[in-house]
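In the previous chapter we treated chains in isolation. Here, by contrast, the input contains two separate entities that must be folded as one system, with a combined length of 280 residues.
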Amino acid sequence: MDEPTAVVHKLDPNKWIDNYSDYLFNYAIVRVNNHDLAKDLVQETFFAGLKSAKNFEGKSTERTWLISILKRKIIDHYRKINSKKGQAEVRMNFYADGDNEGSWLEERVPQSWDNEAEKQIENKELHSQIEECIDHLPEKYAMVFRMKTIQEFDTEDICKELDITPSNLWVIIHRARTQLRKCLEENWFNN
Amino acid sequence: MFKKVEISCDEATTICDKNQYGEATLLDKIKLSIHFLRCKICSLYSKQNTFLTKVYSKKARTDQTHKATLCMSDEEKEKIRKEFEKHSA
């Protein structure tokens, strides 16, 4: 429904840093979980905004417009880490072909854990170990796992934000979780 | 008929992971239960997975309380401001 007196928003780049840097930074850091990277993305967003300010039609608020630029930057970042050649691939846990296709690789079969206990759930050192294990994942897996499990985003939102399909997402989550389980088994539970 | 519900360990653990977020379908869960009947390894994976989900969720709660206070330092903002002024000049 068009209102005859629709507000036309204007840009005021001189105030962007004061008004939006915290907001944009927060938006970025919960997605990329890296202070410097989030800061760079915010900076790039301001520069890109300045460059395309003449295309701003005033239909959305300044903030919404800047966020849409930041979203683009985050997708670009995700595509970059997704296509990075030679990055440490996540280790295989299952036979990829042959008669045993889809069965556990012998050396990756889950072992029982010595010290799995309810009281461990709040253990700060276990939480740090988890953090370390997530950091050992390829960046793409770490990013999607964090968004889904630590930030608790909806599947639909993550797919939209990173431009991936749900089945894509579940493959990534599955690989991340099996890898993390193994890392925690070796460094915590059966250490 | 039974062939259709038979799945590999890779598929079973994928469903199991999906189920940690409450997003496995009913058919998925049936396939999973049937797989568990004949696979001790995946049953163990599932049990440990449930435990890990609790830890991850606890960690998420703790992290979010900390994250709320995260922002850029004044120096960092000042640096961006200087760069920005160069760009807008």
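Residues 40-67 of chain B form the longest helix (28 residues). Chain B touches chain A at residues 7-11, 13-14, 17-18, 20-21, 23, 41, 44-45, 48-49, 51-52, 54-60, 62-63, 67, 70-72, 76-77, 80-81, 83-84, 87-88 (CB under 8 Å). Compare these points with the single-chain example from earlier in the chapter.
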